[in-house]
Amino acid sequence: MTSKRLVQSSLGSLLLLLAPAPFAMAQIMPRNAQARLFFPHLADGGTPDGQWQTRFTFINPNNSPASVAMSLFADDGGPLGLDFGGGPSTTGTVAFTIPANGTVVFRSRMASSVTVTGWAYATSSLPIQGNVAFRLIENGTAKVEITAEPTLPSAGYRSVATPLVGVAVANIYGSPLPVTVTVYDHSELISDSPSELAFIVAHELGHIYQQRTGKFIWDADREWDADHWGLLMSLAAGYDPYAGAGILGKLGMATGTANLGTQLWEDSVFAADAHGSFSTRIDNLTQFIQQVCGYSADTQNSCSQYKSGVHPHFPSLPTVPLRNPGVTK
Q1: Alpha-carbon distance 214 to 216, whole Å?
Q2: Which residues contact 310 (CB under 8 A, 6 or more apart)?
Q3: What are 126-180's pLDDT values in tens digits?
Q4: CB burial class (10 A; 0-12, 13-18, 19+) of residue 12?
Q5: Domains plus CATH for the chain?
Q6: How far apart are the C-alpha atoms of 246 and 254, rounded to whole Å?
Q7: Within 13 A of 186's CA, how many CA atoms are on the CB side?
Q8: CB-based contacts of 183: which residues, under 8 Å, 6+ apart?
Q9: CA nearest 206: which of 237, 233, 236?
């Protein structure tokens, strides 16, 4: 097992690798900054026991002000006048200026006694960023909030989905358009977790590092080394570090190896197989998370706060070992 000293030195190398080089802010423009922003869905108003509140957030990453005009449309295509504090607009249009490197937020006052839905379109003199959030409020208490990023018009759209996914389609043209929505009942192992997909991508990037450098940073086993790369790179990108165990568990179930008997047989008979036992790989990741969290007092505190907020039902330490007794590494 990798020593704590190697973990510390390698962590330092990883942090240096991920740290951005010096740059001038004027030369940086976010990839999702656009001069035309389409928000395919919003919801607002309703009775006190179930009200929706809409909030638009716009960010100007430029060093000069941006002039923006936002038009809101109801589901029937007519103008939608939301009250953002100055009364509803009869034309459904809001014009404003975002200061250089500034932010503008519009929050509706839920003036309608019935829930209204629609979509919005914003044009800007400079590329900007934005999102729309609609929050469900029950008797003054916020229950859930949905955030939608702007998108660009497209003749085709595909997305992984779960039974809880909703689809909003808006017609930006002046005449009706026929739309066909096709739902496929083919479950994907990673369709319900972007963090699991991030782990898989980072794992494969770890293999690219191995192939190009001929080095194993975290472990002498190439799959376990790539697992550690997958955990750290996805974590550095803001994804859930526990997702690696999730996808490995699904792979174990999909291949019929999710039991201790098969695990022991795999680890002993097929020791030459780089992928080995999925359960043992999950155990390796669990121990690696503990090592990373034990790097310093600050990391211990951060890990504790993250776990209590995101995974409060997880035990402080694994109470049941995932590795089969007798299997050592």
Answers
A1: 7
A2: 240
A3: 999 999 998 999 998 988 888 888 888 888 777 766 666 778 888 888 888 898 8
A4: exposed
A5: 4-19+189-310 (no CATH), 33-148 (2.60.290.11)
A6: 12
A7: 3
A8: 161
A9: 233
